[in-house]
UniProtKB/TrEMBL annotation:
Protein name: T6SS Phospholipase effector Tle1-like catalytic domain-containing protein
Domain T6SS Phospholipase effector Tle1-like catalytic: 13-312
Species per Swiss-Prot/TrEMBL record: Botryotinia fuckeliana (strain B05.10) (Noble rot fungus)
InterPro entries: AB_hydrolase_fold, Tle1-like_cat
């Protein structure tokens, strides 16, 4: 029987699935008391960018498209202490989350619908895995869903030669080992949908994520083994999180200042050019993992990455409330204006720097930290200190062996990485490093590589053109932005032996929502500082001094 029998012609809908990060649960919005770390009273939870984006979405776009919003809480948000620890520290439950999100799509998809997957951290892994499932096996019919668990385990283990199938005859006997042949048989038996009735391939319209980490952030350390806890990600290594040609758009915001070794970023690379290549956009921002994905009390950096993601999604048709950026900004202002002064305890070995910018900027804006100058948190605390450190390396990542996770030594090429202008501004305005203890030095760019800031004349085709606008409240670029071919870039300035294939990383241009946030944050004067093409020599001198300081500290 036809899966869509009885369906009348209706306007296709947009299904937006929001997969939150570890310990994040906006259905509850409350962080329970804990013993480790010891917090005797519960607190309201600071929402992640996944939560905030889901609340910015309109129910109907201006063209009448119904936007169906599905929010899924992160791992480690169960009611028990065991779930909190096993889900939070070890990623337990991710497979279940993948099945739940996939099931929602399979149950609600009708021909022509747009599927958009949004995620942060392990929620980003969930989103990417679901996109991989849709590429690998399509969308199961209601008949296929009757055998979903067995099919899921088969798909999960397509590349696992040692997999022992405990359902050898489900969904059919003599199951092909090859993924394409398996999918073909699912189609023949009406267990899955790969094409819509008009013959077009069912695709994922977009995957939009903040800082996916390659090992799920699970520390593979001896302490976990001694505690009798699982300490490997091999249960999840066969999930397909690669960038399939059946994903139309892929957006990722990456954290420059996350240095926990298990949190190495899962950078995307376009490798499928047979079909229409994926529109891939990956941008590096200042801050640690949750600075970029949201969840810390100081949301200034997360506001920037949220506005950036909203711009990417708006550019492909997703519709947001007109006042979304205003509300985000107002909440940040309220946070700073009600923030108690920093602790001056005599037991601190070092004290934070009070002024978080150059004197002129600090005096003008205090107590509200303006654009790009929010606090960078140190994520390397507690048990994470045992897992080791590793500075991230934009533009220098290699392809990994899908089975072992080890580097193949082959450089990634088509990653479409860019650096956000907030990095340059933070360095330029004397922003601070982790926990406000030192000046910001951005080791990922200025020590690793290193990369040198420059300004050159170059013709760049931006995914979001400067003429783009999302209505009267989200403006287009100014005239000088539109006409100038001067662009800030980061040029590789390291040894030739380690030189990347792409030796120039372009600075990302601002989209309409980002411009609005910047104007609210700093006013027109500071807005021009971000987009200004003048005074290049002064800024190059500032960055060059930071590079030299980094080299001296390494010597």
């Amino acid at each position: 029987m036809d899966e869509y029998e009885g369906q009348k012609h209706v306007h296709p809908k947009r299904i937006v699935l929001c997969c939150d990060g570890t310990w994040m649960d906006s259905d509850d919005g409350f962080t329970k008391p804990t013993l480790i770390p010891y917090k005797p009273t519960g607190t309201l939870q600071t929402p992640s960018n996944v939560t905030r984006l889901s609340r910015c979405l309109r129910r109907y776009a201006p063209d009448g498209t119904h936007q169906i919003i599905y929010y899924h809480s992160g791992v480690g948000t169960g009611s028990s202490v065991l779930d909190t620890l096993s889900g939070g520290m070890l990623g337990t439950g991710i497979s279940e989350h993948i099945r739940e999100v996939y099931s929602f799509i399979a149950a609600n998809y009708t021909p022509g619908d747009e599927i958009i997957l949004v995620g942060f951290s392990r929620g980003a892994f969930t989103a990417r895995s679901v996109a991989g499932m849709i590429s690998d096996i399509g969308l199961l019919t209601r008949y296929g869903m009757s055998n979903f668990y067995a099919i899921f385990k088969d798909q999960e283990n397509f590349r696992n030669a040692s997999y022992k199938d405990i359902f050898p005859d489900i969904p059919f006997p003599d199951k092909p080992k090859d993924g394409d042949e398996y999918k073909k048989k699912l189609v023949e038996q009406n267990l899955t949908r790969v094409h819509d009735p008009n013959g077009s391939r069912i695709r994922v319209h977009a995957v939009a994520v903040w800082d996916t980490v390659g090992s799920l952030g699970i520390p593979n350390i001896a302490l976990l083994a001694k505690l009798g806890l699982p300490h490997s990600t091999k249960e999840y290594k066969f999930h397909d999180t690669n960038l399939s040609g059946y994903i139309r758009h892929a957006f990722q915001a990456l954290a420059l200042d996350e240095h926990r070794r298990p949190f190495s970023p899962a950078v995307w690379e376009i490798r499928d050019f047979e079909d229409e290549p994926t529109d891939l956009r990956q941008v590096w921002f200042p801050g640690s993992h949750a600075n970029v994905g949201g969840g810390y009390d100081d949301q200034e950096i997360a506001n920037i990455t949220l506005a950036w993601m909203m711009d990417q999604l708006a550019s492909i048709g997703v519709s947001f409330h007109d006042d979304a950026i205003d509300i985000i900004f107002q909440k940040s202002v309220h946070y700073y204006e009600t923030l108690p002064p920093p602790s001056t305890s005599i037991f601190r070995f070092s004290k934070p720097i009070n002024e978080w910018a150059t004197p002129a900027v600090y005096e003008k804006h205090h107590p509200v930290r303006p654009w790009a100058l929010g606090k960078i948190y140190n994520s390397d605390t507690g048990i994470w200190t045992l897992a080791g450190k590793e500075t991230r390396t934009p533009g220098l990542y290699h392809r990994l062996d899908p089975d072992t996770g080890a580097s193949t030594g082959v450089p990634m090429t088509h990653t479409n990485e860019r650096i956000h202008s907030s990095v340059r501004i933070r360095l330029d305005l004397g922003g601070l490093g982790e926990e406000d203890m030192t000046k910001y030095k951005c080791p990922a760019l200025l020590k690793k590589g290193p990369w040198r800031l420059d300004q050159i004349r170059i013709k760049v085709t931006d995914p979001i053109p400067p003429t783009a606008t999302w209505g009267p409240t989200a403006p287009a670029a100014l005239d000088d932005e539109r006409t100038s071919d001067l662009r800030w870039v980061w040029e590789y300035d390291g040894p030739e032996k380690n030189a990347p294939v792409i030796q120039t990383i372009i600075e990302e241009n601002l989209g309409p929502y980002e411009r609005k946030l910047l104007l609210l944050n700093k006013g027109k004067g500071m807005f021009h500082k971000v987009i200004d093409v003048a005074n290049a020599d002064d800024r190059r001198a500032i960055i060059s001094a930071e590079i030299d300081a980094g080299r001296e500290s390494d010597a």
